[in-house]
Structure formats: C-alpha cells, structure tokens
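debug: dumping io for the single-chain case to check the tokenizer round-trip. Nothing else runs in this session.
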Amino acid sequence: MHDLVIRGATMIDGLGNAPRRADVAVKDGRIAAIGEVGRDATETVDAGGLTLSPGIVDLHTHYDAQATWDPTMSPSPSLGVTTTVMGNCGFGIVPSPPPVRDLIMRNLSVVEGMDLDALRAGIKWEFESFADYMNAIRRRGVYPNVAVLVGHSVTRTAVMGEEASSRRQATPEELARMKAVVADAMKHGAIGLGSSYSPNHSGHGGVPMPSTISDFSELDALAGAMGPGDTGVIQLASGNRSVEELERLAARNRRPVFLSTSVGMYNEQAPERAINLFEQCSAAHKRGHGVYVQIPCQPLSFDFTMANAYPFYSHEAFGPIKAYTPEQLKPVFRDPSFRARFRDNISQPLPGLIFQGNWDRVMVAATALDKNAPLVNRMVDEIAREQGRDPLDMMLDLSLEEDLQTAFLGKFLNVVEDGLAPLLRHPAGVIALSDAGAHLIYMCDAGFGLTFLGHWVRERGDFDLVEGVQRLTSRQADLYGIPDRGRVAVGAFADLLLFDPATVVISAARRIQDLPGDGRRTIRDPKGVHGVFVNGVKVFDAKGYARHAKGPGRVLDRFVPGGVAAARALA
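debug: decoded output
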C-alpha cells in the first residue's frame, strides 16, 4: 500500500520533459510510481486541473537562527519551497562558543536586518560546534529540508572574538583553528563554505563583517580545508573580487563557486556590466571551472535606516562616517556642508554605483512616530514634491525627527525587466538570493519562486512552464550536488508542489507580530498553491500549515559533485 497518491495532476517533472497527466504514488518518503496507480493508499489527493511539480529549491536563505525556534521555517514552505540552503555569505550561528554568542547575534541583527531582541529571546543555544547544531536541528525537526553552509565570518568570530572585525591577518594558530572548524563541518555534513567580501556587509556599530577584511588567501586556505573530495560548494558575496580570482579558487579546490554581487544585477546606468560578468563566468565554464552568479528574479531590495545607510556608503560623502554611532551621525546629517557634498555626489554619480540619486526608488517603509505613519509606503521623491522640498533634505530631516529610526526600502537594481530577462536566461545564472529569513522587519522576498512562475512564466512569457519549473528545481539541486531532489521521478524524494499555473502568485507584504519577544516581521502569502509536500508528507495546503509533532524535513548531509555539467545540460 502506498502512503500517498496524488491523482490526475498535470505532472511537470523538473527535468525538462513535456508535461503529462499522471498519478504519482509515494512510499516511505520517495516516489514509488508514476502513471496509472492502484487505489490502495493511506491518503489520496484529487489534483484534477492542477499542476504537480517538484518543490522549489531555495539556495540562498538565512534561517539559521529561526530554525532553532520555528520548525516550519515560515514562510518558505507556504511559498512552495521544500529545500533550503542556510548560512549564506558566511553569516551563520555556528561555531558559537558562549563568550561570543551575543556578538554573533549583534552582528547578525545588522547585516541581515533581524530583530536583535527576537534573536536573544528565540535562539535555543543547544549547540556550540557545527555537529552540535546539525543534531539540534534534527532533534527539533523542520518542515522543509535544510542544508547548511559553514560560515567564514562566524568561524572567524568564534576564533578571534571582537578582533575578527578589526584585524585583517589571522595568526598561523588562529588560521589553523579556523581550518579545523571547516574540516569538521564538512565531515559532519556541511554543503559547503560561505563567505563575503562585500563592502556593504557591516555588523553591529558599523564594524565590517569579519570575512570582508580578511585577505583572500584566508578564504583560499579555508576552501582547501574542505577536504580532498570534490563535493561541496563555495558561496560568497564577492564584492570587488574578479571572476578570474574566483575561477582560480574554483580550479584549485575543484568545487563550483556561486557568487552574489551588485555587479551581476541589471543597472541601467551601466547596462553592459552585468552581462559581461555572466559571459566571463561562461568562459570559465568552457575551461572546466564552475563559476556562477546568483541572480534574483525581482528587484533587489535594500532595507536601511540612516543609522546604517549602507546603500549610500559608496558615495564619497559617507566615506569618513560609515562607522559612526547614531549620536555621532546626527550632527553630521544636520550639517549643510555634508548635505552639499552628498548632493554633489549624486548629481554626478559614478557608473555602477547602487544609488544614482533616484529618489523615486526609495520608499518610507516604517516610521517611529505615529504622526508620520501616513508617509509609510510612499516614495521619497513624491513626499518631497508634495512638501515642496529637496528629497535629500526631506529624508534626513524625517530621520532626525525620529532619532534615525525611520526605515526605508530602496529598489535600485534589477528594476528594468527587459534588462534583467537575459540574465535570468543565461546559463551562468542561478535564480536565487531570496534572503528568506533575513531582512524580515520590513520586507520578504521568500516567494521568489512563485513570483518567477506567476510573472516571468505566465505574465511575461520569458520562459515556458517546463523550463521555468526546471530553473527552480532540478537545476538548483544538481548545481549544488543535492541528490534525488528537485525532480518528480521514481526513486526521488517526494518533495512536491501542487499549484494552479493560471493563478499562482504571492500576496502583498503584510506585518505580523509572532517573533520571540513579540517581535514583528513581514511575510507574504501564496495564492494558487494547493499543496506542498516534503518527503511525501503534506506541510501546507490552501487552508494553511499542517500540524506535525515533528516536521518531515531532513537535515541534508550527503552530497554529490555539482557544477559545470548541470549548466551544460540546460544550455
């Protein structure tokens, strides 16, 4: 007898084959039969008129902390995601010796836009080593499958403490300890190594995140500690690192490199810049070295306050004040000479900078004073016109009035869809960067997969449904070496998404108050999703989350080589 049979769906297998109407049977967490299936089943789902595909694989999430208190890892499963990769950019929460735990949380709260009080109230510190963490998540149980990267910054913090953000060079003994952490993590099931060299990645008090100040040779040494095999990936926010450097890293360590960078996103001020980066990665593929660009299928959002205005940091006026405290920043922001310098910067912006003076893409996301609440969800340029003021003055004065607590949301990259489309189609691109679990105070991009199916497939027609599903499922799993997932095939794990292609979409963002310590977060809801199954067990349907004493997701710890072959197969 089968555990589950889904009957009468139009099946898209995630492997690029044509859709077909079929029953799908599940036994012991795997797909047991496809086609005409007998009636004997513990549970039967009538899926007539709906489409059944593999569940979405989200390669870039930050659920590391949330997974310790919320086994659903909401909202990703509701948005069709059945497998997540955590620890991206090197910002995890292990290793975590007790003396540095609060430092880890403080930095994480800033770099990933998380509620510090919620982190302090919510994280269940039942672990210290990477192996401890994996076992703690297994014991607690999760709804989606999870794979975990070992993080460069958090490892540096565990070994060097506060000096991890101020001292560029680790001692030989410190580097040896960091390498031992990476080797141990790989032994206990890490999917790879995460890092960042992005100058925009700052921690608590404006300090740089630890990996960003390290010499690139340190990352190379840690990658070398991953072991002699060729399983596992290297993921990094690459900052100003060249594809040539990353190709050498991939070649030396026989592992694919997945980079995220603003250089790889469409910017109409420098329209050829991103596609040139993708082409450089394709050239590396032809030489047998996997270098890929993680590309979001929606505008890249930057949530910030003027206490940590990182989208503006690349402008000269902000150079001397990046590490200032809020109290130090207030007189600077009042100073007419600072305003004049910043105004001059954005009147003649350098090509490729994130912010080009386009105030029509900066929105007031939240206000600290009730009297300013009518400004929420309105663009800075619109408010300034209404008030007859300069947008820069309006923004700074509002922030000063609210003690620099006003929240803004900027969308500067990947806004022009006709420029973004070729990047999404490019064989060197990987649709990712949802940042699910992070920046949740003011935004939520966890529904990237449903956005892709609803907008890029159905509305724009840049992809047909077969290719669109493949881009979100088997391709992701194969590139990262996650076996038997991202496909509807006999013997594969039964991670499945049942949906209506004609209506699938995500809702507008809404705020809820359910974080530890009554913290608030922003989530989105699915539309057109009728069932999400992880290892053959329903975790979500149109009515909401299923209740399980222990989530059916698995902590993934066995991987196979990924990389170039998967990209060539799709190209």
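debug: round-trip ok. The chain has a mean pLDDT of 94.
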